[in-house]
Design a protein that fits this description.
This protein has helices at about 30-35, 50-55, 75-80, 90-100, 110-120, 125-135, 170-180, and strands at about 40, 60-65, 85-90, 140-145, 145-150, 180-185, 190-195, 205-210, 220-225, 230-235, 245-250. It is of the alpha/beta class. The strands form 3 sheets. A 5-stranded mixed sheet has the order 4-5-8-10-9, with no helix packed on it. A 4-stranded mixed sheet has the order 3-2-1-11, with helices on one face. It is globular, with a radius of gyration of 22 Å. The N and C termini lie far apart (about 50 Å).
Length: about 250
């Protein structure tokens, strides 16, 4: 039958129903996080005693990296993160441990050497056997709604890109996630000089939860508001280094 030329097909008419939007992909953590409140835990650095208190909850634990080094029981802290109970973001100390477990040539700094020795003890064989696989799958950042969870620092590209393999090549984006923003200069203590310009690029309404930088002067997580209307909450309060462990409880985000 010939089509009436005075009436265009339904798909061409202005009053036609719009096509159904494509289904949004399911968040990879939806199965673990659906309806569950969160507990965001700062740098642990081997402080198992404090981490036990933080993990004693029905909330889903997101630990912001640097599980290991400095404290008395890095292997025990690593063991405490069980699949389904929580996860950890990859921190620079965690990545350094992974590279040492891979047999890479590393600077023999005392915290790393002590952590390696602990992982190699017979009583920690369970942790040693799964450590490299767990470190390899630890994400460099997670975006949940208007919350970003990362160890070192934020970049706007994190909102639209999946994190690269954390044990692969250190791209500029992975460097930002692990180490924050650096000036290229070294401090007297031998560590890179850091700056917080990235906070000013957090979009309005977004909050970045991070560790790495110990900025608090009163033992509580330190909050910095950015010029665009976003904010960063720094959760490293010195656990494993003479300070204590901080955490923040959040409502469900999925």
């Amino acid at each position: 039958m010939a089509r009436d030329a005075t009436f265009p097909p339904a798909a061409e008419r202005e009053d036609a129903a719009p096509p159904a939007p494509p289904a949004l992909p399911t968040h990879p953590l939806a199965g673990l996080l659906a309806g569950r409140p969160l507990r965001v835990v700062g740098d642990v650095h081997g402080d198992l005693h404090a981490f036990r208190h933080a993990a004693a909850t029905d909330r889903f634990v997101i630990q912001l990296g640097d599980l290991v080094d400095y404290g008395p029981d890095s292997a025990g802290a690593f063991r405490l993160i069980d699949e389904g109970r929580g996860l950890f973001i990859l921190g620079n100390h965690d990545r350094k441990l992974a590279r040492a477990l891979q047999g890479r040539k590393m600077r023999r700094d005392p915290p790393l050497m002590e952590t390696l020795a602990a992982f190699l003890r017979e009583e920690n064989s369970d942790v040693y056997q799964r450590a490299l696989a767990d470190l390899a799958k630890a994400p460099a950042w997670i975006v949940l709604g208007h919350s970003i969870f990362v160890h070192g620092g934020f970049h706007a590209r994190m909102l639209g890109e999946l994190p690269p393999p954390g044990l692969g090549t250190v791209t500029p984006l992975l460097s930002r996630a692990l180490f924050g923003e650096t000036t290229g200069r070294m401090q007297k203590d031998g560590y890179p000089e850091r700056r917080l310009n990235w906070v000013d690029h957090i979009p309005p309404g977004y909050t970045v939860y991070c560790g790495h930088d110990r900025r608090s002067t009163d033992g509580r997580p330190w909050v910095r508001n950015g010029r665009m209307g976003g904010r960063a909450i720094f959760t490293d309060t010195g656990a494993g280094k003479g300070g204590h462990l901080a955490w923040i409880d959040l409502p469900p985000v999925l």
